[in-house]
Amino acid sequence: MREKITAGNWKMNLSWEEANNLANQLAKQPKNVEELIVVFSPNIYLKSLIEAYGDHLIIGAQNGYSEDSGAFTGEVSFKQLRELEVKHVLIGHSERRDLFHETDLLLKKKVSKAVELGFTIYFCCGEHLEERDADLHFSVIEKQLNNSLFHLSEAQFKQVVIAYEPVWAIGTGKTASTEQAEEMHAFIRSLLQKKYSEKVAVSTSILYGGSCKASNAQDLFSQPNIDGGLIGGASLQCADFSAIIEAQKIA
Ligand code: PGA
What we know:
Elements: E1 4-9, H1 16-28, E2 35-41, H2 43-53, E3 58-61, H3 78-83, E4 88-91, H4 94-99, H5 104-116, E5 120-125, H6 129-133, H7 137-148, E6 160-164, H8 178-195, H9 198-203, E7 206-209, H10 214-221, E8 228-231, H11 238-250
Parallel strand pairs: 1-2, 1-8, 2-3, 4-5, 5-6, 6-7, 7-8
Helix pairs in contact: 1-2, 10-11
The structure holds 2-phosphoglycolic acid (PGA).
Residues 9, 165, 170-171, 209-212, 230-234 line the site of 2-phosphoglycolic acid.
């Protein structure tokens, strides 16, 4: 059965001291065995955080590069991340797509490489506001999944978590309504069923992201097709993130 997941995306935030304190506090919290807690940290903190807290907290990377090595200044390969014992990675976040011009083709290569190396990938998809206003949101999501994710085999899909993050809701304070989020999650699950099988559809976790916070998390997480959240801003303070983790327990 699919897992409940609460994941924090720290983005390019937190000093080392702040990151270490936050991970330390999170690692000490009592765990709910049915809920996975993941934090996606800046690369430079990964090694230290995994060494210190890896037994209590899943520490993941926010990005990786598909080639193993070579002349790719500034990039870090999935292969290098594996050497640090990183096992979870975000792929295709809208900030990577929009600010760093990552294309569907590049994301497809990243997906293949990360899965080949044994990562659990959190594949992000989401439409822009103009696309939703033009009623194109379902086709945009279908295209993103078709172009970069659906080349994986059914067996490989065990390593996939999908995060639906409407771009207009990220960091804007504007959350998708529970109806809008649930509708899209149900649509994604129907695509999984069509493309793969009922088994893949029911066993793949689909997270919601975009201004998810303590005040709306429980409503979102109690929807039948929403298995948790990918949290940006509200994952940077222990109290806020802990309240979201709690919301998942009671949802
Ligand atoms: P937000 O970011 O929670 O700050 O909207 C979510 C994300 O970008 O993953």
